[in-house]
Design a protein that fits this description.
Length: about 180
Amino acid sequence: AIGTAPDAIAVSKIFINTLLAGAGGVMAAGTVTRLSGKTDVVQMLNGCIGGLVAITAEPLMPSPLASILIGAVGGLIVVYGTKMLFALKIDDVVGAIPAHMFAGIWGTLAVGIFGSGDFLVQLIGIVAAAVLVVPLSGVFFYILKGTVGLRVSEETEASGLDSAELTTVAYPEFK
């Protein structure tokens, strides 16, 4: 609610920092992909998402420059996280793991790094979330595996879910 002048100022800071973090993610992802051969628009868009996810943990407190840095690191995390998943042969069709999980972890830690929170508290929060989510996910996937199954056909797996389900290649530079 923007009921007072300080509220309006806070909301405007949040808007600016959020936009700057997204821009930082785009620029970092674009720069890194360009330096490795060609500018990859898909990675730039995912870099924007990574920057937006990273700043979401605390969009009010960082300075505009810190917001750009937080977003840029989020964008880099997306690019390199995607490469890591590809090397591990983990098919993440839309890049959700690097953009949301990896960049989200970075954003949570950035709250402690950039002074608006305690780094150790942020780290404990990440570990606590993992302690809850990993076992629950394991149970959920075990149930899915026993009922509807978790795997696609070998042919679909070999071609990639992006090709089989979406009729496009999500990350052509890795093919």
